[in-house]
């Protein structure tokens, strides 16, 4: 049977247009999905919107809309953006859909029956104008962190999930499943900051607003945030419903991608909910860092917001995805600056990748009228070294990518691009032509085209159009030369004719002009 791969992104709060930071999670997940598709695996990706809560209710009211009208519009906006960014999700769940709400109610009842959920009192610092509770640590100078006004100590009846009961089981699970949390340091953060100091029970209902899923047996309560949101990963697959075939096929998830701000919910509450449901846990939860701006978080008030569609419109989808994925380190936040974006475009994409292709295609045309010579069975030392280098880099790429060190994996590909460019200088084909060293010249052209073919396949998960374009330009038509498996061989190119047109895939940009352009976008956003 085919290997399967099920991947999820967080479901998004529908609070406005998504900036490049919010889009990052989904671009990342999509690239990982595409990698598995390319490897021939039965891959399924889930995303959606997280549509309940007081803030959404208020926002809709302020716009003169019903909450449902508002969230539907927002969900459409999200779907449109994913379409423009060619995200290949297989399902999009809205938490206001019946298929979700009904099952969340069933799960709540099950937890009540199991005595995992109990009724108690929620006590906290309440901001009356904002109608929101805060914990002491959330307050800013003892006042509301949102509006700065006085807060009052208040209590209300609420249901709680007994997290403490599962703490030891969770620690044991972490210990026995080293692949469960990536990168590993996030596990230590959870243990040291939240579990060891004593896990608090989680409040799972509210009575102060009603835009949420009602508790069937106590309808003045609505099920609050995390029990509603996290369970989307199950309800979208039909868990506990009449048709649970997708659930049977895909659960447990192979990978759940989340940003660092929601790590705690996914690494502590989520596995505990799953344990309480007696379900297997996802194989890996990947926590990524944030894309930051020079002056901190992206925000409209700072005038530093960048929207993905603006970058896509001007620089193309592939350049945008390349930047986002390449610029995010594993252990710290990534930085977006207009300068860095344009430099990556000019250096990595134009100087390194596009020029390698152009130079190679031009030489095959010049020396062999566009027809690629066949593989020479006895490569010389320089050629052999290049072959070995390519094989090593492909291995390194897979190792890093499979460990979800995506930016490091992409760096491995660009090492191969640089090494292949260097090979042109090392073999100096123009010199070989002058000296009439036909065999060496043939071998040099073959190795260049073969490395470019491999590079094109390696970038396909995140630069799909560029990959196709490169393969077309170097005359790779047969499907079996475009597969992931075909990275394993070096000697199979035959009857290949490269393009006779000069079609650079990336053209050098004027740095000053483009930096100004991006800055003006940020100011107007
Ligand atoms: N609704 C919750 C998730 C519920 S999942 C059961 C939520 N939504 S969100 O819209 O606020 O965030 C969606 C994703 O965007 C999260 O993974 C979050 O970490 C990510 N990002 C938001 N800003 C980001 C950056 N600046 N950079 C990278 N990712 C960022 O959280």
CATH superfamily of the domain at 330-488: Isoleucyl-tRNA Synthetase, Domain 1
Overall spatial form: elongated
Strand order of the largest sheet: 3-2-1-12-13-7
CA-based gyration radius: 27 Å
Biggest pleated-sheet summary: 6 strands, parallel
Low-confidence stretches: none
CATH class of the domain at 330-488: Mainly Alpha
- Shape-level CATH architecture of the domain at 330-488: Orthogonal Bundle
- Average of per-residue pLDDT values: 95
List the ions, cofactors and other small molecules found in this model: 5'-O-[(L-methionyl)-sulphamoyl]adenosine
Helix proportion range: 40-55%
Number of strands: 17
Which structural class do the helices and strands define?
alpha/beta
Beta-strand content bin: 5-15%
Which terms summarize this structure?
single chain; about 525 residues; alpha/beta; Isoleucyl-tRNA Synthetase, Domain 1; 6-stranded parallel β-sheet; 4-stranded antiparallel β-sheet; 19 helices; 17 strands; about 50% helix; binds 5'-O-[(L-methionyl)-sulphamoyl]adenosine
What does this structure look like?
The protein has 525 residues and is α/β, with parallel strands linked by helices. It contains 19 helices and 17 strands. The protein has a domain of 159 residues: Isoleucyl-tRNA Synthetase, Domain 1 (Orthogonal Bundle). 49% of the residues lie in helices and 14% in strands. The strands form 5 sheets. It has a 6-stranded parallel sheet with strand order 3-2-1-12-13-7, with helices on both faces. Strand 12, helix 10 and strand 13 form a beta-alpha-beta unit. The longest helix has 31 residues. The protein is elongated, with a radius of gyration of 27 Å. The two termini are 49 Å apart. 5'-O-[(L-methionyl)-sulphamoyl]adenosine (MSP) binds next to helix 1, helix 7 and strand 12.
